[in-house]
Amino acid sequence: MTEANLAPAAKAPARLQAVRGMNDVLPDEAALWERFEGAVRRVLDLYGYRNVRAPVVEPTPLFVRAIGAATDVVEKEMYTFEDKLSGESLTLRPEATAGIVRAAIEHNLCYERGQRVWLTGPMFRHERPQKGRYRQFHQVDVEALGFPGPDVDAEQMVLLARLWRELGLADGIRLTINSIGDPAERRAHRAALIAYFERHEDALDADARRRLHANPLRILDSKNEAMREVIDGAPKLLDRLGPASRAHFDGLTALLDEAGLRFEVDPRLVRGLDYYNRTVFEFVTDRLGAQGTVAGGGRYDGLFEQLGGRPTPACGFAIGVERMVLMLKDAGRDAGRAPLAYVVHAGAAAAPLARRVAEMLRDAGHAVVLNAAGGSFKSQMKRADASGARFALVIGDDEAARGVVGVKPLREGGDQLALAAGELAPWLAAHARAGGG
Ligand code: ATP
Ligand code: MG
Question: To the nearest whole number, what is the mean pLDDT of the chain?
Answer without folding.
Answer: 93
